[in-house]
Amino acid sequence: MSFFLFMWIVLLGGLALHVTFDRSPLRRTGARVLELTALWFVVVGLGVNGVLAGLVHLGPGAPAAAESIGWSPSPFQWENGGSDLAVGLAGLAVARRRFRGGWMSAVIAVAFVQLWLDGIQHVTQWLLHGNTAPDNVGAIPTCFLVPAIAAVTTWAARRAAARRTAPGAHESAAPTHVAA
Hints:
elongated; 7 helices; mainly alpha
């Protein structure tokens, strides 16, 4: 099974389980689902995915990883692996509540640039050079969708939290800290 397909199954399956078994007082509200979606896309989609991709490009499996992308092993992997690992570790840090807020925004911004440029390169390799290797073409949806979904859901969750705590909000709506 493709690395990317496996990551999507873990990401979406974990998110669905978290939403289903969430014990927050705000469970299953639109704002809470947005918050959890943002968190899962940053911690798992960018964090876990980044750490694993970084270790693959930096470790003994690097030649096989290059081949699965349709490339020959080269120094690009050391650079790409380092970038993946850095973004991944920052994404994992967001799992801790104290590293949310500004950290989450920074992780998304950096990952957005890195992964969209990676995605453009994968599309270029596919369309201009006929590179249909599984992990070249298979990376394309992940490169574009994960940072975009992380950014949109983080923005929407923060907006929903601001509306909930805005002056004039209904008195029974208790203000809460939004983790996203």
